[in-house]
Amino acid sequence: MSISVIGLIKAAVLNGTPLLFGTSGEILTEKSGNLNLGVEGLMFMGGAFGLLGAFSYGQIAGENAVGSVAIAIAFLMAFLAGVAGSLIFSFLTITLRANQNVTGLALTIFGTGVGQFVGELMRLKVGGNVTISNALKDAFANGVLPMALQKIPLVGPILFSYNVFVYIGLVMVLAMTYFFRRTRTGLALKAVGESPATADAAGISVTKYRYLATVIGGGISAVGGMVYTMTIAGSVWNHSGLAGEGWVAVALVIFCLWKPINSLWGSVLFGGLLILYLRLPLSFIPTQIYKVVPYIVTALVLIIVSMRQRKEDQPPAALGVNYFREER
Amino acid sequence: MEKKHAIEFRGITKRFGNVVANEDVNLYLDKGVIMSLLGENGSGKTTLMNMLSGIYFPDEGQILVDGKPVTIASPKDAFDNKIGMIHQHFKLIDVFTAAENIILGLKEKGTLDKKEISKRVKAISEKYGFDLDPDKKIYEMSVSEKQTVEIIKVLYRGADVLILDEPTAVLTPQETHKLFKVLRAMREDGKSVIIITHKLNEVMEISDVVAVLRKGRHIATVKTEETDEIQLTEMMVGRKVELNIGRTEPVNPVPRLTVAGLTVRNSEGINKLEDVGFIAYGGEILGIAGIAGSGQKELLEAVAGLRHISSGSIIYSPEGRNPEELVGKSPMEIKDAGVALAFVPEDRLGMGLVGGMGMTENMMLRSWNKGKGIFIDRKAPEELAEKVLDHLEVVTPSVDYPVRKLSGGNVQKVLVGREIASAPSVLMSAYAVRGLDINTSYIIYDLMSEQKKKGVAVIFVGEDLDVLLELCDKILVLCGGKVSGVVDARTTSKEEIGLLMTSLGGKEKK
């Protein structure tokens, strides 16, 4: 196998990882029946606050900064930013029963704005590029597995050479799959998304499940933004770098048919499609065409799925519908 | 010492805004007893039971279970008190299996052991004589199977009191028999059962006692063996009601609608109707029977021009004009030709009425293009609305009150009243009395009979076979989208129709 193919696979995995977080978080949210279109905003917030966390830690700790601590702080900051953003969404849609589409779009605008604000503010304070020390950058971007594994020919680069987020994402998705398939809580959450009235009658708190799923899902999505900023964007604030990631993640949710396990390969595929114009440039195809490929693939999947009409492949039946017990 | 009742209501009152749904209800139920809860629409039966199952909370009064006062604020509290309700609209999740639906929301220890759950579900099934595959998905099930899942769900939670909201509305006679057998097995087991129903013959057949509600108040509880249908109706309605549908012999029937070889496919290319043929005569009521989803809806929609017809013809022969082909005409043209469709969908509002609009505006949906110039004529629809309100005793604050907020029966009256008012020569109605109480149902039946006397060809899709047998002249039975048979309503039996409904031609499985 040639170097360039291995390179393409590696790049696809790396570029897919932010999508993996963004998508699996949104799957968790949508499984509860909440359609949060604010993923784009959440990822922006995650990216900005993640960088802010790592950057501040680097400033304070100086030479003594430890890579793993920086990663933990960035992770936590991004997650909390996502939690805060989706808490607004949850309050508006679950408690006040506002329209989910409108609220989601508003959250995108809000989150993008907050992200930009934090990012630009940091840049003004520093007076130039906001970035962290090279040692910390390496901690975010370099492979975490033992060298011996990474050195295995072919298998090493393709499977074992990635940064820590790839493996966290992998474990998280497997855990989520187990959660949905094997636990009572997972079953209850699916029930809430399929038919809140049924779940309610079975004694499941629709409000509690929707809040938790949306807030945790939002946190996970926001981590995706942080992963993008800290790895792909090279730990530098770039005000347009994240643009579009969230929307691709939302499209990917549909592509994955609302099953977390599908996001493993789906995110790699979409990650690959996103950078295809860099890796496989054909002069007669404009870059713009390359960039719409993920959306075209999603549309195709939607067409195929709606033609096949398999009940298991449909979105959660109550997706986008707010629940009010006494409504008739 | 007072005897302990399984369930007792003491002075229960529930209001929704200004509307009193239940007022000072005192009612009790003993163990090992099947009780029918009888009442007209809006008499507060379902509301009362919803308070027992934790959907609503009473404003005043006390509920006692086994002689102890309890607070039931949520469905979970109801389960804890061993009360389970089977709702009219099943609360099941389509993409889950029967077993998953049954254990949903239960806080049992350990991981989800699907094999163990299936085993326990099977054990319950066998005990009461159910027939259920625990690993079958809900969307693959028939209505009766879904109901079975609901009942087992309640039993699995250890319920001692079961409430069934109109359980037989969607079942065939054979399935109803099976259900009643199961209910009797539960009674033997010492469980209490409450059935909410409109069907008096079933009340007489299954229950030990009958409790009658009227306008939210408890009128009386009587032993079934000491009462009869006429007395019960009187208690329900509050006055004497004639329970006979005055069926007249058809006068001079002429073919009005001739359907031949009608085939209709749905969007997935599956035949919903296959080679359906029949003749509807003016001055006759043609009943259409069949298990839910056998193509009744598709048939009416095809005639009304709302569905694409793959093949076949529908010849309409109006009085004094030349016969014309309806296939290929737009719904508007068909309506103008005099074919009216009063379709009451499952959710009552889906087709035909706009929930947010008042009666007047809904009347206008049929006449919006009749006004002069660009302005619509409000006067005529308003008069029509007043007429329907008067004639059918629609309960509404005003003709401009949104129909969505009316009770189900009243919504149906508005819909049927409007269609009849357009003086059609073919009147099609589906489930016109679905969920209506006896009194209102008979008003609707009378309206149909009246139309028939005027020489209108009436096509009546119904669920209640007893009514079809009494009201119609002929009954067409559909089975899986095909005509299973056409029988004379005067000579056939419920059992014969039931067989035709379940097997084509009624031949197999005798």
Folded structure, characterized:
The complex is a heterodimer of chains A (328) and B (510). Chain A is mainly α. The longest helix of chain A has 29 residues. In chain B, α12 packs across α13 and α13 packs parallel to α14. Chain B contains 16 helices and 20 strands. Chain B is 32% helix and 25% strand. With 510 residues, chain B is an alpha/beta fold. At the A-B interface, α9 and α10 of A face α2 of B.
Number of alpha- plus pi-helical segments of chain B: 16
- CATH level 4 superfamily of the largest domain in chain B: P-loop containing nucleotide triphosphate hydrolases
Mean pLDDT of chain A: 90
Low-confidence stretches of chain A: none
The chain pair forming the largest interface, with residue counts per chain, is: A-B, 24 and 26 residues
How much of the sequence of chain A is in beta strands? under 5%
The CATH topology of chain A, please? ABC transporter involved in vitamin B12 uptake, BtuC
